[in-house]
Each structure stands twice: as structure tokens, then as C-alpha cells.
Amino acid sequence: MVDNLLPDSDIQEELYEHFRFTVDPGQSLLRIDKYLTGKIQNVSRNKVQNAAHAGNIRVNEKPVKPNYRVKPGDVISILLPGPPRETENLPENIPLNIVFEDEDVLIVSKPAGMVVHPAYANYNGTLVNALLYHFLGKTDREGEPMRPWLVHRIDKDTSGLLVVASNELAQAILARQFFEHSIQRNYTALVWGDLPEEEGTIRGYISRSPRDRRVMTVWQDPEKGRHSVTHYKVIERLGYTTLVDCQLETGRTHQIRAHFASIGYPLFGDTAYGGREILKGPVFNKYKQFVENCFALLPGQALHARTLGFTHPATGKQVFFEAPLPDYFIELIEKWRRYIAGRILEE
Questions:
Q1: Tell me: the pLDDT tens digits for 22-31?
Q2: Tell me, what's the pLDDT at 347?
Q3: CATH numbers and ranges of domains, the chain
Q4: H/E/C letters for each residue in the chain?
Q5: pTM (2 d.p.)
Q6: 212 catalytic residue (yes or no)
Q7: What's phi and psi for 192, nearest 5 deg?
Q8: Which member of 155, 194, 212, 327 is catalytic?
């Protein structure tokens, strides 16, 4: 019997699926890897076994090995990184900004404007296409051809760091860290308005908007969406905008963008959430032209995935990476600084 089937991969940044089963009273003793392979569509036994080795299969809340034999009444939960069904993607020779690479993980700094994974209307030119080309000819410890194993993603028009697993076991171990919210992720964002507090936390339940499936809505009703938490601190106040550091506790789709829009401070330049309009400041034409010039610098919203920290899936050691702001983001900040300095001098 399936108690609760929770496919998460299509509605949040972390790419995993969580399943929960209660074993039927009449079930005979059966290895858990074989049992789950029969329960979950399009999933290989090897993938289930890797999930077990990563500690992602739990029976009555305790991790088990692939050879555990299920018993009637057992409550089984399994965390699977990536959707079981995978489509064929083609390698493309696209330059990558690789921050770090070893046999288990690859850290890449994605530019704004690049889609992470091929999907409708974006079948080519994605990060996955570039990674497939990067791995051509490489083999893992067992001599098998290497390929990228995605664990999470960031929006097309958001720049910054992603971790990509280089083998299926590393992917499974990293997926558990995302699921347990132990990954450290900090973003830099420029938001419209002057935030009233120096730091704060935005909480809510996030789901796709019933009016526009392309954007997310934040609710206060737990029945309407997924739990989401963003912590923020003010870095610098720039008059009609504020530069903030955001630390993700959860990682829902568009989380930072939807969260700040929900409290009335949308990200600067964010078309989908109302941030590509002049929301604060005077009505003078000179100011309007200044803001338009700022918008022209940006490929999308002013959001950058700056840091990434996690436990290395092979060594067990904590690792930490940081990507500097893109040049256009630095220039955007400088333009606001110059504008505010000039305004103060005029006063």
C-alpha cells in the first residue's frame, strides 16, 4: 500500500523524489531492493541499491541495506535523486566555468541566461548539454563512462554555483543533504525598496500560482503549498533599493524571488514578479532613465548564487565554494551607489 507518494522534482529546486510505502499484511519476505524496484515505475535496481548505500532507504525510520527483507507492516521511505525516467540529451561544446572537480563532484558557476536542464522550448544550449560534452571520454573508478548527475538547479536568469555529482552514489548522498537542509547556500540579491529590518526570515507555503503556472505564490495556509524558509541580512542600503544576503533553509522553485515579492520587495529586474517596473523613487524623467539604464545591464533578476557548502560524498569532509558577483551585477551596484551619492550631495 502506498501511504504517501510525494514526487518533488517538478516543483522545487532540489531534484529528488520521496516515496513512502506500508508493506501489505500478506507480503512474503523479499529483499527491499527487489521490492522497491517493483513498486516504483522506471527505476533500476542499481539506483535503488545506491539509495540504500547512501542511507536514503529507511524502514520504520532506520536506514537499511539493500539485502534487508521487508516484513508485513514495515513503513518504508525512499529518497531518489533525479526522476526515474531520464530522457536522451546530446553533448554540446559549450564553455563551462568549472570552480572545482574531482571523481565525485563538479562545482560549476552558471551564467545568467543558461537553462540547467533540457525541457520544453529549451532542448539545446543547456548546462546539461555542456556537462555531457565535458564528460565525454572520461571514466569512473570502475571504468564506466562518466556522466553528470544533477542534484539541484537554479533559475535560467540566476547566476552562480551548482554542485553536480559525477556518479550515482555521490548523487544519492548529496540528495540526502538537500532533503535534510544541511547544504549551505547563500545568494546575493538586489531588491526594490528599503527593508525595515537589518535581518529577518520569510516563511510561507509555496506553490504554483493558480492564475499563472509560470510563477509561484506564497501562502500562509500549509494546505496550499510546500514549507519554505529564507533568512536574509541587509548588506547595503542603496536608497530605493537594498542589497541583501539570502540564506536558503529550503529550496523551492523561485523561492527567493517569490518570497521577497510576497512581502512587497520584489527583486530588481524580475519581470515575472513585478520587479522590472519602477516601484520606488521620484517621478522625474532623469530618474526614470537611470532605472532603465540599470535594467539594461541585467539579463534577468538581480540574483546570484554566491556560496555553496556541503559534506563531500566521498571524503566526509566539509567543503565550501564561493563565486564572485558577475561584472554586470557589480556595475549595477556601483550605479546605485553613484546615484545615491549624487542625491545626497544635491540635498
A1: 999 888 889 9
A2: 45
A3: 2-81 (3.10.290.10), 98-180 (3.30.2350.10), 186-305+327-346 (3.30.2350.10)
A4: CEEEEEECCCCECECEEEEEEECCCCCCCEEHHHHHHHHCCCCCHHHHHHHHHCCCEEECCEECCCCCEECCCCEEEEEEECCCCCCCCCCCCCCCCEEEECCCEEEEEECCCCCCCCECCECCCCHHHHHHHHCCCCECCCCCECCCEECECCCCCCEEEEEEECCHHHHHHHHHHHHCCCCEEEEEEEEECCCCCCEEEEEEEEEECCCCCCCEEEECCHHHCEEEEEEEEEEEEECCEEEEEEEECCCECCHHHHHHHHCCCCECCCHHHCCCCCCCCCCCHHHHHHHHHHHHHCCCCCEEEEEEEEECCCCCCEEEEECCCCHHHHHHHHHHHHHHHHHHHHC
A5: 0.83
A6: no
A7: -70, 140
A8: 155
